[in-house]
Amino acid sequence: MDQHYEAIEQAFPELESIENSDFRDTVREAWAIAMADNAITEIEAVPWFPPVQRSLNLPDERLVPHIRDVTQGALALVESLKKRRSVTLSVDTVIAGALLHDVSKLYEFDGMEATTVGTLLGHPYYGVSVIAAAGLPVELAHIVLSHTHRTNIEPATLEATIVRQADAVAAAAIRAQADTDGNTT
Ligand SMILES: [Fe+2]
Fold this sequence. Notes:
- The protein is mainly alpha-helical.
- It has a single domain, classed as Hypothetical protein af1432, CATH 1.10.3210.10.
- The protein contains 10 helices and 2 strands, in the order H-H-H-H-H-H-E-E-H-H-H-H.
- It has helices spanning 5-11, 21-37, 50-56, 63-84, 91-100, 105-108, 116-121, 127-133, 138-146, 158-180; strands at residues 109-110, 113-114.
- A two-stranded antiparallel ribbon has the order 1-2.
């Protein structure tokens, strides 16, 4: 799996912002496990969300820039909040949650086609087992499960709320791009 470490670090420079080095390595490991499990060699080639891309006519949208949008948006929210109040949250958990919120898509899609995991479980339930397999805490599984309205789990922590909002904005930006490009929705 460690052959994927360099590609993961290059794809997600935000990993370096995780202060706890053991935690940072485990987040990287979760991505490495997901890549190895699905025989993915080009992380940059993984699509963002095939069924939505099809409906938006955006076949070239990729997962990596979306995850970076979400991570940087989440960090901007954290910084903005911290300027005016003493918020109690783990910045490391926000970054890790943002970086891993869509990791289950590697199991849900093979290129643009849904896998059995994607068909039978949908997005993002399998992410919980990826988090567990990497030995990451339940707070991260909660962020994964609550980041989208597709599950009935609502964010119960500030960290999860931040990631959900950052993801909603990042996804809306992709949809707005489809509108701008004049694609059919
Ligand atoms: Fe997302």
